[in-house]
Amino acid sequence: MDKSMQVIVVYLLTHIGLIFFMYPTDIIECLETGHWSAILLGFAIHVALLAVYLKGLQFGAPNNVIDIYKRFGRWFAIVFLFPVALYFAVVIVITIRAYSEIVTLVFLDNTPLWAIMALLLAVSSLVAVYGVETIFRTGILVALLFSPALLLVFSLSFQNADWRYMLPLIDQRAASFSYVFREPFLLSFFAFTGGFLFLGFIPPRIPYKPRKVLLASAALLPMFMLSVYVPLLTFGQSAASLLQFPFITAVDTVNVSWLMFDRITLFFLLSLVGFVMIYISLVMWKTALMIRSVVTIMSPIVTILLLTASVFLACLYIPNWHAVERILWWNTLLRLYVMLVIPFVTLVLGFRLHRKGAAH
Amino acid sequence: MELLEHLRNRQRQDADLFIHRIFLDRYPVTLVGATSLIDLPQTVKLLQTQVRHVVASESPLLAISGGIGERIGQEELVKVFEAITEGKLIIIPDNADPCIKLFPISRKLSRSIEAPMTENVLRGGISAFTEDLDTNIGIVKKQTMTDKLRIHTYWLGSGLRRKATLLYMDGAVNSSFLRELQLAVESHSTQDVPDLQTLNTMLGFTRWSLVTRFNTTELPENASFALNEGKVVMFLDRLPFAIVLPSLVGDMFASDNDRNYPLFFMLAIRLLRIVGVLINTLMPGVYVALVSVNPDVLRIELAMSIAGSRVGVPYPAIVETVLLLVTLELILEACIRLPKSIGTTITMVGGIILGQAVVEARLVSNVLIIILAATTIASFTVIGFHNAISIRISKYVVLILSALFGVLGLFAGMIVISAYLASISSFGVPYLSWPRSKEQSDG
How far apart are the C-alpha atoms of A202 and A4, rounded to whole Å? Predict the structure, then answer.
């Protein structure tokens, strides 16, 4: 029973949910021309890390990431994985807070922020309590239900495109990769690193083929391109760089005379929020798994409920959008650790386990 | 005689217990059984014929025990009473020999095979299952015509005994599912099963499930298709339905009877059912969300016309919707309870009250009436009444969330329902899986 399909769908879903909000803002801020070079570079790094990580997991199979690290000592695992758990927790807080803010901005301006955060958190933790198999199956169902709206919006989004904004294709800054260590580019990795670690937490009862996941990651490249180039082609670089959520605004300009709805953004946005809820539930489940591997007496439900409560409190303490952006930037350090260190260490550990296993 | 004494005592409480003395050849015997279950004159005639044959062949009379019945010792009271309850005839010889239990000619207590009452067939076999277990198994055997069909019989319950039969197709069935199912049935076989709710708990499913864990069908054709797909069919005595396990999401949309139509038509009709389910669960929520929380989403002309239709309606959209929905549910429930001859009255009264008077009195908007009528009709496009109920309930989740959070609540409701459906699995077979013999894939 190969369940690669489920894994691939959830992998794509979680990334698509993250791409269309902050990512275009960062990339547009990062470069003036030749945005494709930044997208391609980020994407290449993503695929390379994914490959390394998957290879490590393959060596260490059938253990999951936590078990692989635990094989080298309990404290070893705690030291290496604590930053990951912390990163996950912060990611949940940021995502919930940011998406509630977006929802408020775009269409629920009368609803208090805490109510929206409570809804997002409640739904995510409900899905997380059900466990990983349910998350995957929900992912498939949600993808089936929501993708028509997404495809419609994607196909309509070029309505106001002016293709001359594509030019010039490249300048010296883009060609020299001088943007790599600047804040916006590092921030843009939020969209790349959010999802793929979950591949290491999948229990062996959900078998999947790493090669298929790698191949499926190619489907993300058009999404990254779309998210940046739709606003660029609609508004041009200088106007697009002023917008908080360029893609959403670009889609808002689309006018379809035969549709009964005035704003197709809403359905697009909500589909993405749906995907993000799946993403948060996945991260919650991962975090709970890590917490429970240390504090073994806690039941999954209690762990997730405690996590939910603390995330909600943390979200309430974030006063405004500026604070969200600050936390996002502080989290970059953790993010770099998670995206660079974990895959390579996993590869090394997995390789050693594999050799040990082969020697026996 | 001790046994006869006991039986006489019992007769004082059970009026239909007969204790009838006759001579078989030259031996005096007592026949015991239930008049309500045994056709006595016919049975006696059968006995006499058989005795005559035995006498003619000059073998001792009790040899008939090897031929038509089985022996029970006179001291085994429990067994005797059990046999009587099952409708068997007990022959007690006057000497102390063991009694003989035999199959009598029983009264005809179930209806003959008829057309289905709860499912309509437009193209395909029309005979339906009946209350008689053996008849049902016979119908399935005739429908499948294969030597791969396996049949297991269990007696369930201690006080209220009921016969249950599991049928499956060797080679097609998911063996781990079958094993767990049999284990569940065997380990709870002393539990009484008066209804399907207790069957649910007996099989270890939660009682609060919103989704039925087994489908029921009246049509032999559907049962045999299910068997071929690797599902397990269960019959309970006195239940004129085949219980099909496990229940999958596809069963809501795909009836095997559809295969009697051209392929394109079949696909179109299944798509229509999916649309029906979506309309039913989402439309009330969409209305409330768009009217009360997010009117800006609609094109201005449409928003104006909906707002226009609500002029004079004195309460918020959610109250309006819930009021009308409850009325509709009441009509549905009333239609099931009422005898057929009065059913038309309800249609008329409901039609006039809802269609005309409510709108004219400005109690609800006419757009809402259109939406809810579509909703109600759509809820019955799915297959099986048990499935229609579960989607009827799920629309209220969406409705409440939509009233609170608008379109965001609508989408959140969809995710909650999806997650709930995804969390259900019976004996390791997820509800959201596609039937494939032996292995499951999800989607």
Answer: 11
Tens-digit pLDDT profile for residues A39-77: 888 889 889 989 998 888 888 877 788 888 888 888 888
Q: What is the DSSP string of B4-34?
A: HHHHHHHHHH-TTEEEEEEEETTEEEEEEEE
Residue A235 and residue A237: Cα distance in Å, rounded?
A: 7
Q: What is the pLDDT of residues B130-148, one digit of tens each?
A: 888 888 999 999 888 888 8
In single-letter form, the type of residue at position A237 comes to: Q
Say how far apart CA B229 and CA B168 lie, in whole Å.
10
| Cβ–Cβ gap A123/B300 under 8 Å | no
Whole-number CA gyration radius for chain A? 20
**In chain A, domain spans:** 4-359
Rounded to the nearest angstrom, the minimum Cα separation between A14 and chain B is 14
**Among A9, A134, A304, A114, which residue's Cα sits nearest to residue B417?**
A134
Residue found under tokens 């259109």: B370
- Global ipTM: 0.90
Residue A157 structure tokens: 């989004």
The structure tokens 């809810």 sit at B372
How close are the terminal C-alpha atoms of chain B, in Å?
68
- Strand B242-245 and strand B425-426: the pairing is unpaired
Specify whether domain A4-359 bears CATH 1.20.1740.10: yes
Whether residues B408 and A108 touch (CB distance < 8 A) is answered with yes
pLDDT tens-digit series, residues A201-254: 888 888 888 888 889 888 889 988 888 888 888 888 888 888 888 888 888 888
Distance, in angstroms, between B436 CA and closest chain A CA? 12
**DSSP string covering A142-172:** HHHHHHHHHHHHHHHTTTT--GGGG-S---H
Contact A140 B432 (CB under 8 A): yes
- Determine the Cα–Cα distance for residues B122 and B124; give it in Å rounded to an integer: 7
Strand segments (E) across B108-229: 149-156, 162-169, 215-217
On the question of pLDDT at B215 being above 90, the answer is: no
B242 SS3 class: strand
What phi, psi does A64 have (nearest 5°)? -90, 180
Residue B234 — φ and ψ, nearest 5°?
-120, 135
